[in-house]
Amino acid sequence: MEPLARQKLAALVAGMGSQAQVARALEVSPSRVSRWLRDEEPDRDNLIKLESVEFALSRLQATYQRSTALKWLYGFNAHLGGARPIDLLNRGRVSDVLRAIEADESGAYA
What we know:
The N and C termini lie far apart (39 Å). By secondary structure, this protein is an all-alpha fold.
């Protein structure tokens, strides 16, 4: 894995609290996350998911504590039509999730 991608993965593990949580977020096995941290490269789709979740969590942690940020990612969100942000991130809908984060930051109601 490219050093920057490995750094993002390590940051995501730190931000989520464990490799198992990252695996759950990215919809991969925990052993896959472990291999990515050691020497394996994720495929393009998983790399995009990794970068998306890492960016969204980082953005959320600028406003919320880790536990609240994780609840936000896994909770049903009115700004997203009742969808869970983590599910949308895994489907490549990063811009939708970022708009929801911005709406929360501005105090907008859905």
